[in-house]
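Workshop exercise sheet. Pairs work together: one partner reads the sequence aloud, the other fills in the structure field after running the prediction. Swap roles for the next sheet.
Pair: D.N. / O.F.
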Amino acid sequence: MAYMTLYRKWRPQTFDEMRGQDAIVQALKSQVKYDRIGHAYLFCGTRGTGKTSAAKILARAVNCLHPVDGNPCNECENCRAILEGRSMDVIEMDAASNNGVDNIREIRDQVQYPPTSGKYRVYIIDEVHMLSAGAFNALLKTLEEPPAYVIFILATTDPNRLPITVQSRCQRYDFRRVDAGTIADHLREILSAEQVEAEDAAVRMIARTADGSFRDSLSLLERCISYYYGEKLTYENVLKVLGAARTQVYGRLMQCILQCDARGAVSQLDAILAQGSDLNQVVSDFIWYLRDMMLVQTGEEEAETLGMQKDDYEELHAIAMQTDLDTVMRDIRILSELAAQIRFSPSRRVQTETALIRMMRPACDDDVQSLRVRVEQLEHALEAGGGLPAKGAPAQADAEGPDHAPAENSAPPTVEIPPAEYDDYAMLLKDWKKICGAQHPFIYSLLKGTRLGYDKEQGLCILFPDRFRCRTMQEGSRMEDLRQYLNQEYGKNFRIFARALERGEQAPKVVRGTSIPGINMEIEDSDEPDDDGPASD
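Structure field:
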């Protein structure tokens, strides 16, 4: 038997085998089960989400002699005839190559004849948006009032190009992109059935690259298996086949951008391209890297959620702590514009290098987001005592170069407190996330991402990653209200104040005092903050 590609071999044969489209599957099964079949359906969605598969399953289900809970049995004569493509009752037409008026007139003439063996005559028109205006007009009357035994199933990736008169005559179902986790689970089942061994990180990488398309994921998987046939499919092998680069490579590129090291950024881009990566793929992957950084800054995303290995995630988290959300969002916008520009550009490399320079120099742009980033950088420079930077020079506090940047690996200061106070601090530290979540939503938004510290003179200290939220929390009676909440909740009288961490400053480590010289006990803040934690703003 001739070899069959994976996306054809593993095409779903029943509604129950379809993944990621539960609402649509349930609706179609119910219509078949209770004999409430519509006369026209419109399946919309991006490529590889199951539109054509659902259309073929529905065509078999309505003609099946022994349907099972709304699914075709795929064993009766009608089902086998449709599966083998020899049924006269299911007609498939590709509107991309049959888009004229004559093609629709032919269908209009055929609908006069009843089905030969099944209950319905089903017309599946794929890429229906490619029909000409005349063809749509010829289809309208038949689509609105077809014979009782005729069903039209129209599939399209661009429903906006269909006349509203056509859309209004159909039951519309929108097939959504499938999340990477669902695709990865499906790929693992296929790999097990195909007896191919693969690393979990490799499977997640393929699922993520597929961008919500089952068919794309199977095509990518087949490429990887073919390239390394008979070998275990590793994460490194997948990167080579897909022309992608490891997360650490984009981390080094981002470090150069944060340090305004233009020469280093260009050299890093050279290194990525020297590995054989396509420039379009590099830009796309860098956007995804920044997207992951944005999620780390705004939420509590874990390595598994982002589809990353643990060491890659830890490096991403460390870099995310060195910048702010506005800067990351501005960089994503610049790269998104670049991705659209270089698709057919003869000077893709130059445009990419220009975009990297723009990411380092907000002064190159005059939009609101860039101005906000420039103001924040000027604030850092003034607070660092360096005065205003020269015109055209980087406005960051570490504009002198990477050698003058704050030492990220220097040991944080230590605060030693009496055992009784230490026990109270440890109790609140353990419950800090719960305490923040119990506040008013606005107060919670201010406390999200903070850490709990301690000062020998002032007591408990809320460490904010930026001055704005710290000042806002100190306004009015907000701090006193929080103190009263803690006193009532824990039955103690706490002292508490707030301050913002300075650029490059690390949160102090709190240790328990002891009567034995040279011995203390250190408490580790095991709970990560809800978003970006105490970092340079």
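Discussion prompt: The chain is about 50% helix and 10% strand. What would you look at next?
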